[in-house]
Please model this.
Amino acid sequence: MLGMYDMPAMRPANDRFWGLIRAELNDGPAQLTRDCDMWKVWVSPDLIFAQTCGMPYRTKLHGHVQLVGTPDYGIPGCLPGYYRSVIVARSEDQRDLQEMAQGVFAYNEALSQSGWAAPITHLSQMSLVPAKLLETGGHALSAEAVVDGTADFASLDALTWLLLQEHTDLGDRLREVAATSPTPALPFITALGRDACRIADAVQSAIVELSQEDRQTLHIRGLIPIDADQYLAVPTPPTPQALRHNS
Model:
């Protein structure tokens, strides 16, 4: 499953990427899984290859899956294999972050590193807490909530922000307000019984074999070995429920 960055415009490139990995491994289903709950895929003992998020990995999946490697997306201002969140507001809204924190913050889900953990940690370092919270269920939905005025600001992972600018009109209707500190990007994982090194080699080969167009579409430049300790060291903020209770 490669559902973390799989908007319709990217699906053919993701399919070809998986096809190259599968050919290297000589194993796995012919098609990517797109019709199953992500958590069921992530924790399946039959998992061959998937991408998860840093926060689910450090809070629930560590010890239950193996890291294969971390894709390098070439995010500006970040080391290879790292990314950050971009806090966005409506283009015409010129308030600063301190003022926006008095309004509604849209987030995709509570177990998202880029949509929840990174921005809440960033705000807490400024002694700020969002006055109101809106859970949307997805980064694009958070962006749309800001555009239509349902929310005042939102946090998108930097790659999603680039993809929204490339494939939708949301980039023209939003502006960057702030960027969070870089953290390890979304890792590729496999089940505990698999040969993670062999899978990593297959992914490396597949990245090299991708067409230039597909590499550009996926924004993928390579595979970086990032230790579990680096994921586990990332701060985990209070849950939305705890934040509401304490505010």
